[in-house]
Amino acid sequence: MAAAPAIDLRTEIPTLLADRGFRLTAPRRAVVNVLVDEGKPLSVADIHARLKRHSVNLVSVYRTVHLLRALGLLRVADTSKGIQHFELAERFTGHHHHLICQSCGGVEDMDGCVLADKVLAALNRQVLRAQRFRVTGHDLKLFGLCRDCARG
What we know:
A 3-stranded mixed β-sheet has the order 4-3-5, with no helix packed on it. A two-stranded antiparallel sheet has the order 1-2. It is globular, with a radius of gyration of 18 Å. Helix 1 packs across helix 2. The protein has 7 helices and 5 strands. By secondary structure, it is an alpha+beta fold.
């Protein structure tokens, strides 16, 4: 099976903003570029730190993150140690899960989904039977120590 053509997120996301009536300001473009370039969950402070040479102020980063979330283009990957980490919406990144360091609070992506379809189907049956709740999605988070914190 041939791989689907890669979407250029540097043009796709601005197009989606414009389609919804929002201008692509320089700070918005800079924040989008950081999220695309990094390809991993980042806090607002992380995004801002990567924009120092662009002179984007912290308020603009917060506003852009809020707008992208409201439009469904960005999601909260995790809130670790009281700090939210954001990443592009799953429609751009594909379904995946996260590893969360309990020491430094870092959040890393895991490739794909580690839960087999049989496991998910059994879980759905069990939850439906016990709670009368139909599972329509899931988000797995594994907690532990990242490579750097495990060394120390």
